[in-house]
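Colleagues,

For the teaching module next term, I've prepared a clean inverse folding example: a structure given as tokens, and then the sequence designed for it. I'd like students to try predicting residues themselves before seeing the answer, so please don't circulate the second half yet.
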């Protein structure tokens, strides 16, 4: 049974999901608490509105639990023929042969903190001096609008329309070494060529029949036949 490739976690996704867990948890607490207070202290509220608030609070708690469980479900894997990008919402396979070149850059050089606002700024702030790997591709693995819809904002250089990915992992040096090793092996590998059946038949037809070796007693048999 083949071993599964090593996983390289994506810390930006984990931090982003932790922020969502915190936000949805406190939203659930607020809505549920408001519904419970209305149940006991505001009889003028209809039962329908109270049940609606309690239901919304329960749903928010459920979303919080799901986000907590998938907070580490974003990582990279290096397979023999492709790089696999896994996130809670999407999985992408990047063929090694489509990678034109790789280079490294600090996150602060890729994303200007003056232009990143709101929650995005809070998410990327701890990683602004971390080194990321930029994959420049010859072709996108799927439609660009799909990738931008389901992958994080921090996978792409702002305003850059060329096919590429930004990969930020905890240990970029180990990942870069393993990536180049897998990529080189995939490019150099050539599957064994199978010979065409027609060529095999023609080759057999062209083979000359082997000459029969004459033994020491073969001459005696010939003499008897002549008599």
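(Answer key — instructors only)
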């Amino acid at each position: 049974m083949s071993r599964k490739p090593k996983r390289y976690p994506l810390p930006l996704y984990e931090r982003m999901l932790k922020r969502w867990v915190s936000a949805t948890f406190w939203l659930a607490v607020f809505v549920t608490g408001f519904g419970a207070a209305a149940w006991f202290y505001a009889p003028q509220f209809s039962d329908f509105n109270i049940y609606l608030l309690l239901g919304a609070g329960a749903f928010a708690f459920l979303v919080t639990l799901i986000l907590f469980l998938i907070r580490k479900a974003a990582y990279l894997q290096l397979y023999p023929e492709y790089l696999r990008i896994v996130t809670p919402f999407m999985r992408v396979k990047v063929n090694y042969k489509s990678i034109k070149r790789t280079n490294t850059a600090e996150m602060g050089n890729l994303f200007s903190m003056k232009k990143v606002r709101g929650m995005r700024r809070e998410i990327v702030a701890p990683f602004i001096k971390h080194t990321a790997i930029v994959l420049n591709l010859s072709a996108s693995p799927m439609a660009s609008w799909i990738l931008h819809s389901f992958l994080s904002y921090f996978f792409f250089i702002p305003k850059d329309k060329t096919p590429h990915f930004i990969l930020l992992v905890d240990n970029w040096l180990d990942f870069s070494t393993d990536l180049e090793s897998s990529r080189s092996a995939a490019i150099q590998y050539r599957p064994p060529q199978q010979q065409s059946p027609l060529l095999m038949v023609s080759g057999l037809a062209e083979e000359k029949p082997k000459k029969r070796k004459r033994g020491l007693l073969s001459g005696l048999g010939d003499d008897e036949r002549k008599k």
